[in-house]
Amino acid sequence: MEYEEIKTRMKHILERPVQPIPEDKLEPERKRYSEQHKRSREIFEKAKNLIPGGVEHNLSQNKPFPLAMDRGKGYRVWDVDGNEYIDYLMCGAPIILGHGFSEFDEKIIEIIREKGPATGLTSEYELLAAEEIIKHMPGVEMVRFLQSGTEADMAAIRIARAFTGKQKIIKIGGSYHGWSDQMVYSIHLPGTGAMQSKGIPNECYAHIVDVVPNDFDGLERAFKDNNDQGGIAGILVEAIGGESGSHPVHPDWNIAIRKLCDQYESLLIFDEVVTGFRLDMGGAQKYYDITPDLTVLGKIITHGYPSSGAVAGRKDVMSVCTGSLGEKIYIGGTLAANPISMAACYHALKLMEKFDAVGKATGYADRLAKALNDLFATRPDLGFFVYNFGPIMHYVTTGFFSVPLTSADALTQIITRQKTADDYQLVTMSKGLCTLAGTRMYTCMQHDDEALNKTLEVWEYLLSLIPRG
């Protein structure tokens, strides 16, 4: 689905009132959810006394309570109550070979058995992993491994400032670049500024420049106005749009950013935590044929194994990570680049290439998107639709991510629309679909016709609960 059609369909959804599931039909769904997940509820009730909020994971389906998972295999996961799900969460995108892919896991088990988890010193797998990343990604000549995408984003902006000698970092509203102090600004929703910044001093945002996505004039103005105010060191970009494409960008948006970076001698930083090795083996930079100066990578490079992140880029830019005391930037991490993570990176990328994981996951996503759009077309009163960037799928039901903050009742609209989307997700989850935040699905190379048919059956059931408008 092209950009203009996505924007038009989104506009139509926002122009109509949300259509919730009537209470007389929703209450039995809540009851069924509770009855099916008694053990999960017990775990949650105990966890509330030990863990703030009772859950660690931002991606969890938390309403009315989070589900505790037991295991995963292929494209399926099972919870502690024995319920089975078709998994479209995929651990938030890193799983593309499928859960428990034996040829992959056996390699890691061998490393654990024969080498141990870590020594705090260099291993050959660092070199092997770096070579694989460099082989695939056009904008990468050197790699520095870290422990998360959040750390990698922190390192990227530090590298940009050190290399350019400039101070300001442009952040596109609605994009997510981890939870470090400087980056918790206009996250999730464009224009929200410091709304979610409790515990962060305002001074942390002194050199962050917020730009609304697809505001070409505002983007150019940000470069121009800050040129004599410390200058733009770099701009952080999710190439498919904020929140992994929840805020899709105009086809010329990334091109304009690249040109302005060149004009003002600033660094283009692609955050490829989700798109790297999922949108394409060469990431969004290869997919769109736009070469960034720095690339941020995260969880997918170890295919779900922990301590996973990297910042990578041109040799001259990455050179600020080397040198004598006082000349190089400081980056640390005792468990960064440990043998297990590096072996996972090397073997995961090798297997993704060997089995054409991206191609297969994309083929399934294309088929599912078409099938769901055909199904949603039978309910024009709802306006639901699906679009995908390869195996990164977005389904839009209430459009709460896209409510303009300029609307007089914006906050009420967002809350109302998100609650309805949460209710939809409660139904689909209890019927066996595991998705992300009621808006997103990630596919793997093992999703098949059975998964597709089951997915359609669940959505047909959900549509049957919503009265025709």
Describe this protein's structure:
With 469 residues, the chain is α/β, with parallel strands linked by helices. The protein has two domains: 3-97 and 356-465, Alpha-Beta Complex (Aspartate Aminotransferase, domain 1), CATH 3.90.1150; 102-354, Aspartate Aminotransferase, domain 2 (3-Layer(aba) Sandwich), CATH 3.40.640. It is built from 15 helices and 14 strands. The chain has helices at 3-15, 23-36, 38-47, 102-114, 124-136, 149-164, 216-225, 242-245, 253-264, 283-287, 315-318, 339-354, 357-376, 410-430, 449-465; strands at 69-73, 76-79, 84-87, 142-146, 168-172, 208-211, 232-237, 267-271, 294-297, 309-313, 385-389, 392-396, 433-434, 440-442. The protein has a seven-stranded mixed beta sheet, with helices on both faces. Strands 1-2-3-13 form a four-stranded mixed beta sheet. A three-stranded antiparallel beta sheet has the order 11-12-14, with helices on both faces. Helix 2 crosses helix 14 (410-430), helix 7 packs parallel to helix 9 (253-264) and helix 13 (357-376) packs parallel to helix 15 (449-465). The longest helix is centred in the last third of the chain and has 21 residues, at 410-430. It is globular, with a radius of gyration of 22 Å. The mean pLDDT is 95.
Task: For this entry, give a set of tags.
Aspartate Aminotransferase, domain 2, Aspartate Aminotransferase, domain 1, seven-stranded mixed β-sheet, globular, single chain, 2 domains, 469 residues, alpha/beta
